[in-house]
Each structure stands twice: as structure tokens, then as C-alpha cells.
Sequence to fold (240 residues):
Amino acid sequence: MFEGMEKARDEHLHAAPALRVCGADLIVLPEGAVWWAAERMLVVADLHLEKGSAFAARGIALPPYDTRATLSRLEALMERLRPSRLVALGDSFHDGEAEARMGEEDAAMLARLTRRADWIWIAGNHDPRPSRKFGGIVREELRAGPLTFRHEPQPAPATGEIAGHLHPCAAVRVRGRRLRRRCVASDGARAILPAFGAYAGGLNVLDGAYEPLFPSAVFHAWMMGARTVVPVAAHRLEGD
Fold:
């Protein structure tokens, strides 16, 4: 399914079907971000920078490269798309001590990225007061056109909401093979973005946590392959 579609859609930015939320045409990128071309706005959620070092401090050994990997992917996207504005939908830092644990090279990379666009840090539950060391503006939420950008999704109706927090992923069975991917969950009235962070996990969109958000259970999971995105109707999905 994904392999065949990926070969046919090498120009995925142009060929990808647009996700329309309250009249705003958005492009779901396989890297795990959303691009609003009309506003030249790049939107990412849940970077969870320095999650690896937070685990290490608790005696859980993980390779300490998650921040570098996350920022490198983000840098590549910014280089390709040249956004005028970047919105980070909260939990950009894994905790309040993330800045202190961040290596000098990673901190320099993040500072460089925040100077390349008008950068908006949306406050999350892990980072209610994101660091101001790296530039940008901290907001509880941001309204732009018909859309409202916030960290934690609100119960329906929340028309025009673009949020993160839940780290959505979806599973589908194709020719007997079960595929599980990060996804954007959307019913056209709102969209929930996946975690962009390298070490951030995922919560299946059929989990009960999503019921207040999509009470009619009529939505699509925009599942992300390596080079393309495939919208899959909720009735085709399976739980974990």
C-alpha cells in the first residue's frame, strides 16, 4: 500500500491531497508536520527535546541523540519550505530542565532555527513556560484566520482547532500485514497532529481518549509513510 503509493508520489508536496480544516487547505507532510501554504506556516507538535537525557537521569539508558535527530529533521523541512512562521504546539521541551541538559551544539542549532522564521512557542503541559533563551514568542494559543492553534485539544465542538498532545498514530491491515504509523487525525473541523520528536511515542486514534474529540467516530487518519501520506477512514482502522 504505502510502498506503491510512495513510488508514484515522489513529488509528495505537490501531489499530496490537501487536508481542509474549516476552509484552510493544509498539507500533511510525511515528516510529521503540517504546512499551511497560504500563510507560509509550518506547524509541528510535541518535539519533546531532551527526552533521552530525562530518561537517563532516571537510570533508563537511551541513546542521547534524540534532540539532534529532531532538530535535524526540522532544519531540513525549514530549508525546503522556507516558512515565514513556525508554530510549535507545546511540549517542545520534555521538562523544565531540558535547556540545562541540552548540549552546546544542539542549543546553537535550535537558536539558529528560531531566527529563520517568526517562531511561536505554544505552552504545553511538559513546558508551561518554554525557554526564552532561543528566541521566539510564547503564547497559550494562537489564532490565525479560521484556525486556533493550541497544545491540548478541547472536547468537541472545537471548530478550527489545530492541536497536539495526544501523539496520534493509526493501524491498518493491508494484505494481512499490520501497518502502524504516526498520523494526523481530522474530521475536517479540527486536526490533531502527531509528535514530531524522535523519542515521542504514539496513542492509537481508536483509544477512548479521542472519543470526546470525534464523538461521531467519522474522521480520517492521515497516515505517514516514508515519503507520502495516505488518508484512511476511521472504519478501516484497528486498535492496538
About this structure: The mean pLDDT is 87. The domain at 2-145+159-236 is CATH 3.60.21 (Purple Acid Phosphatase; chain A, domain 2).
